Amino acid sequence: MLENQKNLLNYYITSFTDNNLSLKVYLNSEIGRLKETLSNALETSVIKEDNELKEKTTQVIEKLQQLHSCNVEEKVVLTVLKTQQLVEEITNDAD
Questions:
Q1: Total Cβ atoms within 10 A of residue 26
Q2: What are phi and psi of 35, to 5 degrees?
Q3: Domain segments of the chain: what residues?
Q4: Cα separation of 9 and 81, whole Å?
Q5: Is the pTM of this model over 0.90?
Q6: 90, 42 Cβ separation under 8 angstroms
Q7: Of 34, 38, 43, nearest to 79 (Cα)?
Q8: How far is CA 58 from the centre of its chain?
Q9: 13-62: per-residue pLDDT in tens?
Q10: Half-sphere exposure at residue 3, Cβ-oriented, CA atoms within 13 angstroms
Q11: Cα 67 versus chain centre, distance
């Protein structure tokens, strides 16, 4: 499990004690980081040259943008966890 994923789960578990406040703050920051990383990935030659990959990456960015208007629930946390894994794979492949 990635360090960012551990952090997210920790905030999720402890969110029941502070009315989701710390989780919301963390998610806001993490979603911003994920969107920025994916937007940068759109500029890499691997994604730029593959229309399907480009379209799927854009869809993930749009999904993340929609999360800002959602209530924080398990579904949101799972989406962010999966996106964290995706971003890690993209980052490692780029290196």
A1: 18
A2: -65, -40
A3: 3-94
A4: 9
A5: yes
A6: no
A7: 34
A8: 13
A9: 999 899 899 999 999 999 999 999 999 999 999 999 999 999 999 999 99
A10: 0
A11: 10
**Exposure string (b/e) for 56-71, b if CB count within 10 Å is 16 or more?**
ebeebbeebeebeeee
Half-sphere exposure of 77 (CA within 13 A, CB side): 17
Q: Please report where in the chains the tokens 């943008």 appear, as a residue.
A: 65
The Cα–Cα gap between 45 and 48 comes to 5
Tell me, what amino acid is at 43? E
N-terminal to C-terminal alpha carbon distance within the chain = 20
Neighbours of 86 (CB within 10 A): 17
Q: With cut-offs at 50, 70 and 90, classify the pLDDT of residue 69.
A: confident
Which residue in 80, 82, 73, 81 sits closest to 31, CA to CA? 80
Number of CB atoms found within 10 A of residue 83's CB:
22
User: What is residue 19's DSSP assignment?
Assistant: T
